[in-house]
Design brief:
7-stranded mixed sheet; alpha/beta; 402 residues; 4-stranded antiparallel sheet; 13 helices
Length: 402
């Protein structure tokens, strides 16, 4: 009897940006912790100390990964909470004391929804939010960041924070974090970098110049439900939740030693992962060429979304005449797992705001993201292309009969 969701066709997983399969060493560490370190990390007895050791292992591993001090690493439930905490920190005081002058946030339009939605919330609370749109290539121009900071200053606001992801989650385009850091230093603003899609894929120098850095375990072959916000020592976080003394009272609630054990192993492994991911780039480049080839053979124009410097494992391609979710569903029936840049709701497709800002509504609606991982093989790509070609050819045949 098949379980719900279980497939009878072999699956080729090409959605590593959505989540990564837990590494066997991670699973083993979590099983060991579940058996031997299940206590409350806040307890002072031996059982508690065993659990607390797993929590501190994660903290130290993340600190090494991002190049900061373990004392300034705060464990969270994942990247979304870490992102929210970073933005809350910069504006909590201003929201409680609005008479001290208006504060401003400079943020990219192509950021992760957890950043965009929180920025919109801050705008509703009186924070001046200056949005920075990406270029058609998907990269934010540093000059546009400077212009946004100037606009805020002209409006009499103090720029407290610039929020910029290290790597875009949909296109893989690398953002100008180093240049943004220089602007922030010159203007005495904090820089927050969402590094969730960068750690383990790119060298640390691409994001470690930030004042606040967010990480999620499940993007680096760790477990879901755990992440971290790391800060420079000069950043003293404001609490967003209230409760116990865990995480210096800034993130109260009993930590999970089991997921922390997995996070520690994943973060340790991630130190060497950028070299392994760099080797994936030729495979990704060949995939892009082959997708254009099979699209042309089926009479479907293809467009790559995102140019310039990109993470080595991601491509985002639009297929004219298709809706991204429909193509993803057709590929899923063939056992190929990819993602769409669009979200379907109530029978209508809405484009990804990220892609719409870059390439317009039509191309955004027809976009599909393919993301490879360290376990992806040339044979996987060859077989995925065979199945992809079958989907496009079948649709072309059907169109010719109607």
């Amino acid at each position: 009897m098949r379980r719900r969701g279980q497939r009878s066709v072999s699956q080729i997983y090409l959605d590593w940006n959505a989540s990564t399969p837990p590494h066997p060493d991670v699973v083993a560490a979590m099983v060991e912790a579940a058996r031997n370190a299940w206590g409350n990390p806040a307890s002072v007895h031996g059982t508690g100390r065993l659990a607390r050791a797993r929590v501190e292992d994660a903290r130290e591993a993340v600190a090494t990964l991002v190049g900061l001090d373990p004392r300034d690493v705060y464990l969270t439930s994942g990247g979304t909470e870490a992102n929210n905490l970073a933005l809350w920190h910069a504006f909590a005081d201003g929201l409680s004391r609005p008479d001290e002058g208006r504060n401003a946030l400079v943020v990219g339009r192509a950021e992760h929804p957890s950043v965009v939605r929180f920025a919109e919330h801050l705008a509703e609370r009186g924070v001046l939010v200056e949005w920075v749109a990406p270029s058609a290539s998907g990269r934010v121009d540093p000059a546009a960041i400077a212009d946004a900071m100037d606009r805020a200053a002209s409006a009499g606001a103090t720029v407290r924070l610039v929020a910029l992801q290290a790597v875009n989650h949909e296109t893989g385009v690398i953002q100008p974090v180093v240049e943004a850091a220089q602007l922030c230093r010159a203007r005495k603003a904090l820089l927050f970098v969402d590094a969730v899609q960068a750690v383990g894929k790119l060298p640390r120098e691409t994001y470690d110049v930030a004042d606040l850095i967010s990480v999620a375990a499940h993007k680096i072959r760790g477990p879901k439900g755990v992440g971290a916000l790391a800060t420079r020592p000069t950043v003293h976080l404001r609490r967003m939740l209230f409760g116990g003394a865990q995480e210096k009272g800034l993130r109260p609630g009993t930590q999970d030693p089991v997921t922390c054990a997995g996070f520690a192993v994943a973060a340790d492994r991630a130190l060497d992962m950028p070299q392994r991911y760099a080797a994936i780039a030729p495979l990704r480049d060949q995939l892009e060429a082959d997708l254009a080839r099979i699209g042309e053979a089926a009479g479907v124009a293809t467009f790559r979304n995102g140019d310039g410097e990109r993470a080595p494992h991601v491509t985002n391609v639009s297929f004219r005449g298709w809706l991204g979710p429909e193509l993803c569903a057709a590929l899923d029936l063939e056992g190929v797992a990819v993602s769409s840049g669009s979200a379907c709701s109530a029978g209508t497709a809405e484009p990804s705001p990220v892609l719409e800002a870059m390439v317009g509504r039509e191309r955004a609606l027809s976009a599909v993201r393919v993301s490879l991982g360290e376990d992806t093989t040339p044979d996987d790509i060859r077989e995925a292309l065979v199945r992809w070609e079958r989907v496009l050819a079948r649709a072309a045949t059907h169109a010719g009969m109607t």
